[in-house]
Design a protein that fits this description.
The protein is an all-alpha fold and 57 residues long. It has 2 helices and no strands.
């Protein structure tokens, strides 16, 4: 294990603690993650066409 990895891990943990320190900030981060998860779920869904059908009747 290098000192660079230890330092990077410590900074990541400090940043995570700063982001979710309060309930309000934790809810904001959770909301962002939920939004990203919804986008990924929609992109991976077989029910949603990757290329929309623009043909007219």
């Amino acid at each position: 294990m290098s000192w660079r990895g230890v330092f990077t891990g410590a900074l990541a943990l400090i940043a995570l603690e700063a982001v979710v320190r309060t309930d309000e900030s934790a809810e904001r981060v959770g909301g962002m993650l939920t939004g990203i998860a919804d986008l990924v779920r929609r992109a991976m869904s077989p029910a949603v066409a990757a290329i929309p059908d623009r043909r007219t009747n």
